[in-house]
Amino acid sequence: MRTLTLSRNDLILLAGYTLVVLGGPIIMAPLGAGYPDLLQKFVIFGIFAVGFNILFGLTGYLSFGHAAFLGIGSYTAVWSFKLLTMNPLPAIVLATLLGGLFAAVIGYICLRRTGIYFSILTLAFAQMSYNLAYSVLTPITNGETGLQLVQSDPRILDAAAGRDYGAVLPSSDLFGIPMNGYPGFYFCGVVSIVCFYLAIRIFRSPFGLMLRAIKSNQNRLNYTGLNTQPYALAAFVVSGMYAGLAGGLLAVVDPLAGAERMQWTASGEVVLMTILGGAGTLLGPVIGAGVIKYFENIFSAFNEGILMAAFDFLPEPIQHLMVNVTSLFVGEGWHLTLGALFMVIVIFLPGGLMEGFNRLSALVAGIVRGRRDGASARGA
Fold first, then answer.
1. Which of 100, 172, 176, 303 could disulfide-pair with 241, CB 3.0 to 4.6 Å?
2. DSSP 345-361
3. What is the DSSP letter of 135?
4. Could you say which of 1.10.3470, 1.10.287, 3.30.70, 1.10.10 is the CATH number of the domain covering 33-287?
């Protein structure tokens, strides 16, 4: 009978992830990323990428439509705040369930095709969802303005409990603990730790082994008489639930939802996160999400004034030249830096940053082993 205990290596991995997440403000402070808004993005988009990796990394199905579930999660959470309560627990539960429900519907249709046809179908559904949210379903989504809280929202559960927010526009709170700043980060961080634990369980389970078999050779499995469709659909639904949860958490720390979260660029971003970190690995997508969000928030903040100050020690003509060249890679041009980094990693590290880490670990282990063997030989 299989037990629910993790292996020693998995426990170490989970403990290390937990320590890094909970110590995020201290660890990231020297890098200029220790403030809560950015830390929240690290863990939320880490959840998004981990969920996407369950589909893409294990089964090989490349979805370009996961932003739809992210947006659905955000809209669901905001409606939970408007109709029920400002407590984030019902919001994230409903966001996760709705994300999974929509994933079941879309996955049932899209998984009838594989390869590029599957990817195109998911992209089509994502764009349909974006256009519906942007224009057609404006009574539900509030169109281009986005769904926001107003003082007149009923908030039935809060009203029943006698909570009165007065003339102040409420913000989400967990039994009185506000979900902004560091408390909001730690709430999202704890949720991400639970999600990471569940991902480990999925990766190590017979279900995860079946998903790897689908990625390896789905046709051969079908020839044996095994129906792989339910397994692929289950992976799609689980991945959609992760995306819905991530969208709900985005609304928890900032109670609004807009159609821009459902654009195809958001789907492409999670693909980049997963490939950059290492598809099919546990830590890779989280690292990829952190790298991309770090570049987005840190490098995009460099403007002409900052660059002029950085190169003020140079003669004026050379200073302006350096500013003009550097500005192509930072500020509004930070995507160029990300693209160059992505190209380098794909060319030299096809397995992502985790492959580089594994190579470095093997190199260090080889050096240590060589010195140990040399010392033993001299001693003999």
1. 100
2. HHHH-TT-HHHHHHHHH
3. I
4. 1.10.3470
